[in-house]
Amino acid sequence: MKSDRAGTLFAVIWLTTMVVATPVWSNPLLDELGRSETRVWSEPFTPGIGGSVEGYRLAERLDRIGYQRVHERPEHAGQYFWGHDVFWIFRRSHRVEGVQLPEVLFALELDRHRDGRVSGFRSADGERLDRAPRLEPELLAESLDGDRAVRHPLRFDSLPEHVWRPLLAAEDSRFFDHPGLDGKSLARALLANLRAGKTVQGGSTITQQLVKNRELTPKRTLGRKVSEAVRTLAVEAEYSKREILETYLATVYLGHVDGLAVHGYGTAARAYFGRDATELDLVQSATLAAMIQAPNRLDPERRPDAVKTRRDWVLGRLGELGWASADEIARARRQPVRLTRREPRKPPARLFMAWLREEASNEAPVRLEKGRGVVVESTLDPLLQEQAEKAVADHLHRLRRQHRSLRNAPLQAALVTLDARNGAVLAHVGGDPRKAEGFDRVRKARRQPGSAIKPLLLLEAFDDCGGEPLHPATRVADEPLRLELPSGPWEPSNSDDRFRGAVSIRLALRHSLNVPFVRVVEHCGRTDTASALRRAGLQLPEPVPPSFALGAVETSPLQLARAYTSLQAGRSLEPRPWRRMERPGGRRLGWEGVDDVRVASEEAAFLVRHLLTDVADLGTASTARIDDVEVAAKTGTTSDRRDAWLAGLAHGLVTVVWVGRDDDQPHGLTGSVAAAPLWRDYMEHAVRLRPPLEPRRPPGIEVRWVDPRTGLRVGRGHSRAEPELFRKGVKPRRKRWWRKDPPTEVIR
Question: In sequence order, what DSSP letters do the residues of 126-173 get, joined into one string?
């Protein structure tokens, strides 16, 4: 007993010394993955010039990955300092895309005259940096099945001794004395099992259990036992007792709550007792220690008596070891098992995680079938995802409240955001976040996009159009049209059944006029226009019907978002939900690079995007307008009002929103009512959370002045002059003052 107490005293003194000596604790064992473990990481955030620290929510991003805020320039990795004109970050070393990035101290320079916007970056020695180093990614999930609660961070140095002592009493009382394998415990367990005629005790140490859970399969063979012993000794040789115990406390399995597996004292304390692990009392700590033996059999809600019996045994062991007084144990034993249940935090973006699982199954099918772990570096931005889920849930609730006919209808929505630079999926909401459904409407719901397809038709019109490209001031006839088809005549009409005569393409898009766009497609060639849309990522039937010009084809929100990435620079980007997959040991399983297809010239894409800013300012997408942000957006509404869309770009983010009913019945709302407000509510936060991508005018674009009544170029001082953008070499005739020029040709 004296030797045990001496060992315990030494351990406590040593642990206390470690706490004092290490301002910011880092646990390499917790970071190191076992072969059976899975981790899904977020996109590593990189601050950019032009955004603000508040807009990026940079302090929150750092807090979420365990950084400590200090009151002066950081001295240790894992710290940050927020001053009036500088934001210091001491980034920890971490692995990204197969490369171990080193620790680095750097600063964001803040412009106090521009609301604290980031104006530049510098290193610790004052050297200017071209860009900020990437921050660490956030751990999103430890399972691809969505069945594991998000693990709450736990720091051993913050835990009272009475929280972890019951664990040692129950599982490994000689933890601080043995080298990883405990011969005394094994002999004692063997004797107890022989006397009982069955297994009543286990002789595994905490280190052995940790190795078994993280590294090995459940098979019970001699080879497995030898492997376990060797690995256990290796762990003890490389890591401190403190690191081993902290890792065990942070990862041990403690049953299921609301269908989610609970791992770690931090998560279990909240799930079972509604409090932080640092706030657990002796009774609660002993209850958790009791559950470890058989978490599902010793469920405190279903079998409180069995848990109490085991808990009281743990308390007794504390007394035997001299780790608690007789009075403390007696008081604790008199208390029943009391729970204060709190729903554990679910993994974010459950449908996105299902997508990642499909991708992982394609990259490493055998590995997943055998239950082996995998590391996925995803593209998701967790703050954008949270904002998207909140916006979708709030908007659906608002629509149901405002429209009586929708209160009991199966109304749904989908939202997806792509980075227009590389196609990364930054946010993904495949349905109402408040409903546990498995159907991913972002990827799998195929609906007609309506007028949201119209901007994509102009890519071909402005780029080639049979060798004679059109331009925004091209005039098109908005008058009755009849096309003879094999199935019979087709007479498209505008949504208001009115005709306006000759209109420019700019006005036709601003007011979403149907007939002019059918004429443009017929003029440029139905086949060539359909080919451009296919290159953009849309799936069109063959032969393509003329009604595709009005969105009478089926697509998914993800496909439409991919097509809209072509409006950034003329290249369609394949959406990618991950960048790299690897084994826990670091060996690469897969790599997802940027995959793009040229759809149109950069100049043509710029002209279309510029027209869409006009649609957002003055046209059908005006309800998506955001103050002080350049928005390029287009609504879409099917003729029977079954589907409502808003697709658009802002600050380098492409976001598509769809609203409709799962039973495919009309909901009676237009895109400007059902989809645009959701897009705006989400994007006004999203554009501030990401580094801005400022619009760039290609050198091949020039400004000229046009008389909208005739379509002719005129001088800037002309009474009816309006500015318009053109590609160099593609513009209307110039009106001459000395002669009467006829108006420009009208496409009929």
Answer: S-EESSPPPPPPPEEES-SSS-BPPPPP--GGGS-HHHHHHHHHHH-T
H helix and E strand count, the chain = 24, 30
CA dist 128 and 665 (Å) reads: 58
Q: Residue 88: which of 54, 122, 57, 56 has the closest Cα?
A: 122
**Does residue 700 sit in helix, strand or coil?**
coil
Q: What is the pLDDT of residues 213-223, one digit of tens each?
A: 876 555 555 55
Query: 203 near 188, Cβ under 8 Å?
Result: yes
Q: pLDDT band for position 183 (50/70/90)?
A: low
Q: What is the three-class DSSP state of 598?
A: strand
Which H or E run includes 186? helix 183-196
Query: 595, 564 in Cβ contact below 8 A?
Result: no
Instruction: For residues 709 and 700, give the distance between their C-alpha atoms in angstroms, rounded to a whole number.
Output: 26
Q: Say if residue 658's pLDDT is above 50.
A: yes
Distance separating alpha carbons of residues 507 and 527, to the nearest angstrom? 25
Query: Is the separation of the CB atoms in 426 and 653 below 8 Å?
Result: yes
Q: How far apart are CA 369 and CA 47, in angstroms?
A: 39
31: Cβ contacts below 8 Å, ≥ 6 apart: none
Q: Give the other-Cβ count within 10 Å of 511's Cβ.
A: 18
Report all structural domains of the chain as residue ranges with CATH numbers, in order of start.
Answer: 44-136 (3.30.2060.10), 156-334 (1.10.3810.10), 374-449+555-694 (3.40.710.10)
Beta-sheet pairing, 746-747 with 475-478: parallel
pLDDT for the residue numbered 19: 35
| Total residues found in the chain within this entry | 748
- Residue given tokens 């004395």 in the structure block: 177
Residue pair 380/42 in contact (Cβ under 8 Å)? The answer is yes
* CA distance linking residue 727 with residue 604, whole number of Å: 8
Whether omega before 541 lies within 30 degrees of 0, making that bond cis, reads no
Q: Name the DSSP class of 416.
A: E
Q: Calculate the average pLDDT of the chain.
A: 89
Three-state DSSP class for 558?
helix
User: What's 261's DSSP letter?
Assistant: E
Rounded distance between C-alpha atoms, residue 186 and residue 172, angstroms: 11
Query: Nearest to residue 727, comparing CAs of 610, 572, 613, 597?
Result: 610
Assigned token pair, 622? 């005006």
Q: Which single residue is written with the structure tokens 């369609």?
A: 572
Indicate the pTM of the whole model: 0.88
pLDDT digits (tens, 9 = 90+) for 272-306: 999 999 999 999 999 999 999 999 999 999 999 99
Place of tokens 């035997």: 320
| Position 22 confidence tier, pLDDT thresholds 50, 70, 90 | very low
Q: C-alpha angle 581/261/344, rounded to 5°?
A: 105
Angle of helix 222-238 relative to helix 206-215, nearest 10 degrees, comes to 110
Q: How far is it, in rounded angstroms, from Cα 114 to Cα 475? A: 43
Distance of CA 140 to the CA centre of its chain: 9
Query: Token pair 């759809």 is at which residue?
Result: 599
- Rounded-to-integer distance, Cα 640 and Cα 59, Å: 47
Cα 506-508-511 angle, rounded to 5 deg = 105
| Rama region for 434: left / alpha / beta (φ>0; ψ in -120 to 50; rest) | alpha
CB 444 within 8 A of CB 714: no
Identify the three-state secondary structure at position 524. helix
Residues in CB range of 434: below 8 A, 6 or more apart:
393
Residues 117-161 have pLDDT tens digits of 999 999 999 999 999 999 999 999 999 888 899 888 788 888 999
Please tell me what DSSP assigns to residue 406: G
Q: Which of 250, 281, 5 is nearest to 163 (CA)?
A: 281
Strand order in the sheet with 375-378: 139-141, 39-41, 375-378, 578-582, 588-591
Q: Is it the case that residue 35 has pLDDT exceeding 90?
A: no
